[in-house]
Design goal:
The complex is a heterodimer of chains A (115) and B (116). With 115 residues, chain A is mostly beta strands. The termini of chain A are far apart. In chain A, the strands form 2 sheets. In chain A, strands 2, 4, 5, 9, 10 and 11 form a 6-stranded mixed beta sheet that branches. A 5-stranded antiparallel beta sheet of chain A has the order 1-3-8-7-6, with no helix packed on it. Chain A is globular, with a radius of gyration of 14 Å. Chain A is built from no helices and 11 strands. Chain A has strands at residues 4-7, 10-14, 19-25, 30-38, 45-51, 56-59, 62-67, 72-77, 86-94, 104-105, 109-114. With 116 residues, chain B is mainly β. Chain B has no helices and 11 strands. In chain B, the strands form 2 sheets. In chain B, strands 2, 4, 5, 6, 9, 10 and 11 form a 7-stranded mixed beta sheet that branches. The chains are: A mainly beta (115), B mainly beta (116). Chain A binds chain B through residues 6, 31-32, 34, 36, 42-46, 49, 51, 89, 91, 93, 95-96, 98-108, and chain B through 31, 33, 35, 40-48, 50, 55-56, 59, 91, 95, 97-98, 101-110.
């Protein structure tokens, strides 16, 4: 089955600086890669996703890059703000032909934005 | 509230008891997923349905775990003979499938299970 590794487990950056979180996956059949943000005591919420037919996707301060050959993808957050503090999870899933199967998540990165 | 809802939000039970959780997906969503999340870990996929059909159940943690979605709307997750290791947050998610697009999974608030 799929295995997703995520690094680092904790990331502390100064407000205004950039943050990068990296993930690797093992199953070459995976072709859907979402990123979720989870605040303490809250449900995971999708912040951005990428599919295997594109290499990069950007949404305001957030961008995701995908390298299918190397089986890794990364989340980039620029101009970090205090409200970016949370746990971020990467995930991967194959598409069985009608939609995503169950997601395999990484262990998460606790992002701390220092004022 | 038009999001995914789960009931109960918290459940405390004694070891050996059976528990059942309910998930109501977003109304037009045809796929429904169950995950388990333990402290400090990412959600762990358990099973999912497309309409009333359970498409994957090999990832259920043991034969004590079962799930149903009898009419293709709400779903229930049952754990029989609970053990202390079953203590976790149980999350439900739903999505709607298109013809060739993988769509976002929206998560519910979860049911936190504590087994004493």
């Amino acid at each position: 089955g799929e295995n997703v590794e995520q690094h680092p487990s904790t990331l502390s950056v100064q407000e205004g600086d950039s943050a990068v979180i990296k993930c690797t996956y093992s199953d070459s059949a995976s072709n859907y890669f979402p990123w979720y943000k989870q605040e303490l005591g809250k449900r995971p919420q999708l912040i951005i996703d990428i599919r295997s037919n594109v290499g990069e996707k950007k949404d305001q301060r957030i961008a995701v890059t995908l390298n299918k050959t190397a089986k890794h993808f990364s989340l980039h957050i620029t101009e970090t703000q205090p409200e970016d503090s949370a746990v971020y999870f990467c995930a991967a899933s194959p598409d069985s032909g009608g939609g995503a199967d169950g997601l395999t998540f990484g262990k998460g990165t606790h992002l701390i934005i220092q004022p | 509230d038009t999001g995914v809802s789960q009931d109960p939000r918290h459940k405390i039970t004694k070891r050996g008891q059976n528990v059942t959780f309910r998930c109501d997906p977003i109304s037009e969503h045809n796929r429904l997923y169950w995950y388990r999340q333990t402290l400090g870990q990412g959600p762990e996929f358990l099973t999912y349905f497309q309409n009333e059909a359970q498409l994957e159940k090999s990832r259920l943690l043991s034969d004590r775990f079962s799930a149903e979605r009898p009419k293709g709307s709400f779903s229930t997750l049952e754990i029989q003979r609970t053990e202390q290791g079953d203590s976790a947050m149980y999350l439900c998610a739903s999505s709607i499938t298109g013809t060739s697009v993988i769509d976002e999974q929206f998560f519910g608030p979860g049911t936190r299970l504590t087994v004493l």
